[in-house]
Amino acid sequence: MLYAIMTSQSLHNKNKIVEPYNSPEIDDDSLVIRRISKHYLEPIKGGKHRLSSRAFAPSSGGSKGMSVDLEQLMIKDKIDPRQYVATPEYFVSVCFKVKNLRGIDLKVGCEPIAANPYHGEVWGTKSKSKRKKLLKLAQFYVNDYAIILSK
């Protein structure tokens, strides 16, 4: 964990924001987990909900990446990733294989924060077409709700 924190800190620019980069310590075969809150769920027929591609938009602050949790680091620290990411606010999460993200020209890097040492970012999700590709690549990680992934 300390290695990830040190690597991330060294990539901050003069405004203390991490510049987009591909972290070499994140294996291509590892998973990143995107937590999903209720406001990204759209009601559809039958009492179910559909996941919106807006769930994959970059954050408006900081390094402007899509926040994710890095499963590889949790496993290394003997933390159960499914328990770690499931909270009352985030009762649904999806995952992506890192090589699939990098395969569509997205960057995946470590960006630990005080509240989450397993935090990372995926950069390059600004366009609607990229977010739709992410929706097609997404796989459920935790799904405690009636959600459908639109394909």
Write up what this structure looks like:
There is one protein chain. The chain has helices at residues 2-10, 71-76, 81-85, 98-102, 128-137; strands at 31-36, 41-43, 49-51, 66-70, 92-97, 107-110, 119-123, 139-143, 147-148. With 151 residues, the chain is an alpha+beta fold.
Question: Which key features would you list for this structure?
Answer:
151 residues; alpha+beta; six-stranded antiparallel sheet; three-stranded mixed sheet; 5 helices; 9 strands
Produce the secondary structure layout.
Layout: H1 2-10, E1 31-36, E2 41-43, E3 49-51, E4 66-70, H2 71-76, H3 81-85, E5 92-97, H4 98-102, E6 107-110, E7 119-123, H5 128-137, E8 139-143, E9 147-148
Task: Tell me briefly what this model is.
With 151 residues, the chain is α+β, with helices and mostly antiparallel strands.
Nearest-angstrom radius of gyration?
15 Å
Quick one: how many beta strands? 9
**Average pLDDT taken over every residue:** 86
Report strand %. Answer: 25-35%
Element order: H for helix, E for strand: HEEEEHHEHEEHEE
- Kindly name the structural category: alpha+beta
